[in-house]
C-alpha cells in the first residue's frame, strides 16, 4: 500500500468511527428524528458483523415498529428525571472520591476542541459519544489535508478520552440499560455501545477499565439521574 492509499484508508476509517459514535449518540438521545437514527444505525450495520450486527438489526427492527411517542416514553422512563438508569458519567464515579473530576475533565475536552456545552451536561452519554465522534472526524479531516501534527493531536485526544472516560463507565451503563427490561430499542442500542466500544478498546490496545464488571453503583441523586439529551456541538460526521 503506497502512502496515498494508506492516507485514504485512515480517512475512511476515521469517518466510519465518527459515524458509528454519532449513531450511538442518536440512539440514546431523545428520539426526535427517527429517520436520522435509522439511517445512522443502518449505515453502521452495513460495516459490521457478528453480535454487533445482530444488535443493530434488532434496534432497527424495533425502531421500525415503534411509534415516536412510545420511544419518547421509554427514553423518559430510562433517562428522565428520576429515571431508572443515570446517563451521566459522574453518576457512576467512585463514591469514595472526595471531588470527582469527570465533569470538569470532559468540559476541558470540549473547550480544547472548540466545542460548546449545550442542552444538559457535558458528561451525558450522548455528549460523550458525540465528542468521540467529533474527535474521530477531526483526525480524519486532518489526515485528508495531510496535516500530520493536527491528526496526531486529535488521535491522541481520542485515545485518552476513550480510555479515561468512556471505558470507565459506558460498559456498566450499557449493561444496566440492557438489563432494565424497560425498552427493547434502548437495550439494543446499549449492546451496540458496548460492542462498538470494546472494538475500539481492542483497536487502541487498551485494557478493560478496572471495576467495569463490578464497579460502584451509580449515585441516584435527582441531579445525577437527570437525563435530558445534550449535544457536544453542531459538528458531526
Give a brief outline of the structure.
The protein has 237 residues and is mostly helical.
Q: What is the element layout, followed by pairings?
A:
Elements: H1 3-28, H2 34-45, H3 50-65, H4 68-79, H5 102-112, H6 125-145, H7 148-180, H8 184-204, H9 222-225
Helix pairs in contact: 1-2, 1-6, 1-8, 2-3, 3-8, 6-7, 7-8
Q: What's the overall average pLDDT, rounded? A: 82
Kindly provide the radius of gyration, computed on alpha-carbon positions and rounded to a whole number of angstroms. 17 Å
Give helix % range: 55-70%
Remind me, CATH topology?
A: TorD-like
CATH C-level category: Mainly Alpha
Provide a descriptive summary of the structure in words:
The longest helix is centred in the C-terminal third of the chain and has 33 residues, at 148-180. This protein has a single domain, classed as TorD-like. With 237 residues, it is an all-alpha fold. The two termini are 26 Å apart. It is built from nine helices and no strands. Helix 1 packs antiparallel against helix 6 and helix 6 runs antiparallel to helix 7. The protein is globular.
Give the tags:
single chain; mainly alpha; TorD-like
